[in-house]
Design brief:
The protein is built from 9 helices and 28 strands. It is of the alpha+beta class and 488 residues long. Strand 16 and strand 17 form a beta hairpin. It starts with 5 loop residues before the first strand and ends with a helix.
Length: 488
């Protein structure tokens, strides 16, 4: 099979420059012709100006084309291509790597993917290669290359560290003495004994210490040797000793008004205030005065609402959540959560009989012990795996309590009428009681979960948006998992 050259710099800039050049040419010609009808000298000036603009864009387009790069996987290395020629690398010349695959979703299904990566080599001519390319999901043309290089770099880095050597990454270096972090032109040492846990969260490799909730180091997952840093330090269940008891800060989400929504909001507010003020000043009729007062009141109310909700920050900790707004802040400790629901609604718009996916609306609702409910809502066009991680952590917490109840031979209601018992599931309908050994597993599609038996029959259908669906699913996985004594 002939090795294929894969572009690793997408030529979007070329298309942009070409479009700008065409636009400038057309608009310049039209302007020049219009002016030429009145004054020939102005027409000539216009043509010269248009030529300069088009020439500038043409030069930029040429520069963009010269910036194109390609990679070819040779099986034991790779070839880096550019307009200046090709450079061949063997696998052993790679000394560091960072890589991450981004997925774009539509209606919950991956429709495109992009790899962002960096390759460090011991070649002085080209010590670092930056990579970004798009591909169809599950059809990565350079997937084998990055898997092979990643495995090699991991093995060599772990051996180097075990022998007392040093591992370097983007803005940090790690050895037996500790982690050295560069920031603001200086380097700070963190003793290795103070590094307690590391984890990849929200597309970042994070390292935490003993006494602070914020990570000591937070670098992009695709940065150089980020995965090696996490593996060497290791992930543990350690939580800092803090007064709040919330533990480590995992990630933050900031929700602001979009510029278009903000513009429409303020135009409506100013219109109401203007109408109200005009009616109050220029009219003596009771009806008009009432209209002015109502319009002014609504304008002021809209302004106050915007101020109160213009910025919302969600801070997710290992043991709780904080939501901060300009006028209020609310905290939720996971220990006080007795139930939760996580619903996903995919939104579509139909225009001229064509339906298009526009985004997904997610509602995360928690029921608290003696404190009512807590709700966090957001819209996204991709999967928010960080929020899903919080959902799954909370599901494991509740599932552990459910498991204790079931093993105490107590009934535990799930959803859709399904109940956990000590020996099996109680399912409404003709199946009735189903032992756990007769449950093969489950599958989720479009927000509906089907639990199937070992004979292939559909035992129960549940909505993923129902309260306590995810804790029950976690418990079901534990109860139907094969036990070691059964395998022997």
């Amino acid at each position: 099979m002939v090795a294929q050259k894969i572009p690793i710099r997408e030529p979007k800039a070329e298309v942009l420059f070409a479009l700008l050049a065409v636009f400038s040419l057309v608009s310049g010609v039209i302007m020049s012709l219009a002016v030429h009808l009145d004054n020939s000298s102005r027409g000539r000036i216009g043509l010269v100006t248009t030529a300069i603009v088009v020439g500038g864009f043409a030069v930029g387009w040429r520069l963009a084309r010269r910036g194109r790069r390609w990679l070819t996987d040779t099986g034991s290395g790779f070839v880096y291509h550019s307009v200046n020629g090709a450079i061949k690398f063997d696998d052993h010349e790679v000394v560091g790597i960072g890589s991450h695959v981004l997925l774009e979703y539509a209606s919950g299904v991956p429709v495109s993917a992009a790899r962002v990566a960096v390759i460090a080599t011991n070649n002085p001519v080209l010590p670092q290669i930056e990579v970004r390319y798009s591909f169809e999901p599950e059809a990565d043309p350079l997937g084998f290359l990055f898997d092979r290089l990643g495995g090699q770099v991991r093995q060599e880095s772990l051996a180097t560290f075990a022998a007392g050597g040093e591992i370097r990454g983007s803005g940090w270096r790690l050895n037996a003495d500790g982690l050295y972090v560069r920031a603001a032109g200086s380097e700070r040492k963190i003793p290795f004994a103070h590094l307690v846990t590391a984890e990849v969260i929200d597309r970042h490799a994070c390292v935490w210490g003993r006494s602070a909730p914020e990570p000591l180091v937070r670098v992009p997952e695709e940065s150089l040797n980020a995965a090696i840093l996490v593996e060497i330090i290791g992930t543990s269940d350690f939580e800092p000793e803090l007064k709040s008891g919330f533990g480590r800060l995992l990630f933050e989400r900031e929700r602001r008004w979009s510029p278009s929504s903000l513009l429409l909001w303020w135009l409506g507010t100013l219109m109401l205030l203007g109408m109200g003020g005009t009616a109050l000043i220029n009219s003596r009729a009771t009806g008009t005065l009432a209209f002015g007062a109502i319009a002014s009141f609504l304008g002021v109310a809209l302004s106050l609402y915007w101020f109160a909700s213009r910025r919302t920050v969600l801070r997710a900790y290992a043991n709780g959540l904080r939501v901060a707004q300009p006028l209020a802040e609310r905290e939720v400790c996971f220990d006080e959560v007795i139930s939760f629901a996580y619903s996903v609604v995919r939104q579509h718009v139909t225009t001229n009989h064509v339906t298009s996916y526009v985004g997904t609306f997610v509602v995360f609702r928690l029921w608290l012990r003696d404190r009512g409910t807590f709700c966090y809502e957001f819209s996204t066009t991709t999967r928010d795996r960080a929020v899903e991680m919080i959902r799954d952590r909370l599901a494991r917490r509740l599932a552990a309590e459910w498991r204790r109840q079931v093993f105490d031979k107590k009934l535990r209601a799930w959803c859709s009428g399904v109940t956990f018992t000590y020996k099996g599931l109680s399912v409404p309908g003709r199946h009735g009681f189903v032992p756990y050994k007769q449950i093969a597993g489950w599958a989720v599609h479009d927000g509906i979960c089907c639990v199937r038996g070992t004979d292939g029959t559909e035992l129960a259908t549940l909505l993923c948006s129902e309260p306590d669906f995810y804790p029950g699913l976690n418990l079901l996985d534990q109860l139907i998992a094969p036990k070691k004594e059964d395998e022997s």
